[in-house]
Input
Amino acid sequence: MRPVPLAARLAVVGTALAAAVAATVSGSSAAPAPTQPAQSAKPGPTAAPLAGLKVLMTNDDSAQGRDAGFGTDGKGLYEMRRALCAAGADVLVVAPWAQQSGAGARMTPPGFSPVAFTVQAVAPPAAYAGDCATGSTGGAVFGVCVAASPCGSGTPTASPADTVNVALSRFAATYWSGGPDLVVSGTNFGQNIGATVNHSGTVGAVVTAHEYDVPAIAFSAEVPRDLAQIPNVPFAATADFGVRLIAALRQRRALDDGLVLNVNHPFVGAGEKLGRPVLTDIGLSSDLGLTFLDDVPRTGGTYRLVPGDPAPETRRNADTTALAQNRIAISALDGEWGRTTGRGRVAGVIAQLR
Output
């Protein structure tokens, strides 16, 4: 993998983000068409901003999109797919067969014998059926399960990381001789910010794409705390911004193999105003505020896990703070767990063990 310093990536993202902000403020539906795109075919002067861009999509909410009311199982993916295709992108969906929220970057290991993965065609929900028919993929959508037989209601599902592995190592090549140019994960039902990022299947998918040197962006839409507003999760608004951001990154030749972004779009309630996109750091608090209820004796027992109040955020410029202020939080990730600073004490201890 070609190393790209995080500071350099942040600088490029900041420039593209400024263009996306300008598009948001002006109300335009897309950034200007690039004059020197780095990916795929070169659009003409009046072409759609993502013309010819090959995009692999996945999520952690499933490929099936059966929950038309709340959108918990893939509505965000289909809204993003619609927007990308309308902007000229050539889209292929390879996503988990069923729900995988909280899967992180989990992979299904083969152990001592091969593990079967079935990539099975999925009919998009009727409202989205014709969205991508003109692309080279024909708008193909696939769900992936961990089985040698056809995927069904009781079949174990592949994880988001599994789907990216299958698609980038083998399956995408059945549609494209080269590519994809970009992996898009989401739009997720619910925000992925702060400490929650470590456990997000949506984010785990883009970290996996980074291992293949493919630029990747995770998109998530905030779920309102008012349960009556859950049907109004901002999937369409997130998709609209996603197109503008990707077009701006493409125009500035920033869709390189070091790019990994985590984007969270706020839910904007009545009387509130959408803030500007901002480049943020991953916060330290957990937006979910997970809490275990009940007491369990030392002999064992059952706890109940429920969401609670988020812990106060202590990191400056955190994504948690930005989202709470109705701003679109965008964080650049390096996709790596290694640490290069603050290792002095550990190094000293290890030296004494030799």
